Amino acid sequence: MQNQLTTYLSAGYPGLAVVSSEEARAESEIASVCTSLNRRLHAWSSSEGLADTKEGHVTACPDPLDALQLLDGMFAADSPRHVVLFRDLQLHMDQSDPMLVRRIKDILRIAKTNGHSIILLGCRLKLPPELEHEITHVDFSLPDNNQLGVVLDGILKSAKLKAPHEAIREAALQSALGLTTTEAENAFALSIIETKGIDHKIVAREKARTLKRSGLVEVVEASTGLGDIGGLDHLKEWLLRRGGAFSAFAKAYGLPAPKGLLIVGIPGTGKSLTAKATAGAFGLPLLRLDMGRVFGGIVGQSESNLRSVIQTAEAIAPCVLWIDEIEKGFSGSQSSGSTDGGTSSRVFGSFLSWMQEKEKPVFVVATANDVSKLPPEFLRKGRFDELFFVDLPDVQERTQIWDILIKRHGRKAKDFDTVALSRACEQFTGAEIEAVFIDALHEGFADGREPKAKDILTAITNTVPLAQLMDGQIAALRHWAKGRAREAAGRATPAPRNSRRIAEAN
Ligand SMILES: Nc1ncnc2c1ncn2[C@@H]1O[C@H](COP(=O)(O)OP(=O)(O)OP(=O)(O)O)[C@@H](O)[C@H]1O
Ligand SMILES: [Mg+2]
């Protein structure tokens, strides 16, 4: 943040905003920028009033209107250049007090003329439209490795513990990336209480819990690899060839970190499975983002939710950010102007620009079933490195899926004729194959024996595959994918089964 803040203050920006729940760290960075630029820093809060941080004298003024009144006198042309920090001013703006908005605009005008600035600091910020163009956002990232190192050293010192081995320290710091300083401090403290030392597994566990509580992103501990996916050879090959692209060696080679992958396809064909396996294949941590939760909550929350997700992912980077069923989150963006005051389109726009411009190695794997809900801008080149279409598995792919799933459920594939089974379940997805095998396991268990081919074949006969029920949608999806998306499987797209339906879908 310090560089950005220095630039804005030097350029005479009168109104800035820092959104962070880490008040103490943000204030200390703001103070250090003010010192280096020789600006007088004052801080206002409703409980303390307006304090001159250098001289130490405080003027009681719980009402922000009174504080702004005081600035009138302070922000003179011939006075030293001041920076005034307002804590939690958002709480006073929630009621859209017209007088407050007007006073802020007046003071911003005086500040601009005479070279002073105000900074709004709080954990959220939703400006009224009258102020939206007057106040500039300053990015405040989560603490990096070095900053977390200071926190860790401090806590070890206060617990009178020796510095751990460098590798242990580094692992703990890596595990804490994505947390605020306070959260990291808590995780380190917990590790000390539980183990009398620093254990990166405890720190990672606490991070997973903390992020989960936020309800937006979740750390997924997936032990899935590319070997767990049957078929999808082109997609697996693509991932394999990019596996090394996040290394220091690749960076030195001049390779930009891959941006991401969009996987579109029929339900149950292994899209989510592939997202999980991507993290395994790249050897990176996996974060799952619930796009539905980014939207919602209080007005103005969506923007800060997205900002917080990006901050977390960038702090943990390199990592894989998995967004399942992305169309559900963004589907409102096309019509949102009339339904939610444009929030969805704005958040969607911010997400797209982040996708395009992000420099931190956050690899986004997004999955979608319903392409009709995806806005066209989403599919433009430059957002994702590749767009894959996952079709129903063919007979060879189904055989591979049978082999993998039988093994995953603790049985030996060689005990079954998986080629015959795969011929018997034409049009089945991987998810349906798994459901059929689980049915057979239930039959075997109920009779006190192992599942037999007969159980599986009965379950197949009793199943109407989704592909039959969704014939029209699947045909339309295949048609859409032609020329737009790469076939995930190592074969040509099968000929559409129902050309009349495709014509209708057009
Ligand atoms: N190609 C495959 N190889 C191995 N297992 C598969 C495959 N496809 C599906 N499965 C099995 O089916 C389960 C469900 O698949 P998954 O959740 O990845 O499908 P999906 O395409 O994401 O479906 P949806 O669109 O409904 O979210 C997987 O956990 C896995 O057990
Ligand atoms: Mg899925």
The CATH class of the largest domain turns out to be Alpha Beta
The average pLDDT score comes to 88
Content-based structural category: alpha/beta
Largest sheet: 7 strands, mixed
Alpha carbon gap, first and last residue: 50 Å
> What is the general shape?
elongated
Please give the number of β-strands: 14
What's the CATH superfamily of the largest domain, by name? Answer: P-loop containing nucleotide triphosphate hydrolases
Q: Write down the domain tally.
A: 4
CATH fold node name of the largest domain: Rossmann fold
Ligands: adenosine-5'-triphosphate, magnesium ion
- Secondary structure: helix percent: 40-55%
Low-confidence stretches: 492-506
Strand content: 5-15%
Instruction: Tell me the CATH architecture of the largest domain.
Output: 3-Layer(aba) Sandwich
Q: Spatial order of the strands in the main sheet? A: 4-3-2-5-6-1-7
Tally the helices. Answer: 25
Q: From the alpha-carbon coordinates, what is the Rg to the nearest angstrom?
A: 28 Å
Short description:
This protein is an alpha/beta fold. The chain is built from 25 helices and 14 strands. A seven-stranded mixed beta sheet has the order 4-3-2-5-6-1-7, with helices on both faces.
Features:
single chain, 506 residues, alpha/beta, Rossmann fold, 50% helix, 13% strand, binds adenosine-5'-triphosphate, binds magnesium ion
Report on this structure.
With 506 residues, the chain is an alpha/beta fold. The protein has four domains: 2-138, Rossmann fold; 145-214, no CATH class; 226-390, 3-Layer(aba) Sandwich (Rossmann fold), CATH 3.40.50.300; 395-426 and 430-464. Helix content is 50%, strand content 13%. It has 25 helices and 14 strands. The strands form two sheets. A seven-stranded mixed β-sheet has the order 4-3-2-5-6-1-7, with helices on both faces. A seven-stranded mixed β-sheet has the order 8-10-11-12-9-13-14, sandwiched between helices. The model is unreliable at 492-506 (pLDDT under 50). Magnesium ion (MG) binds at residues 271-272, 324, 367.
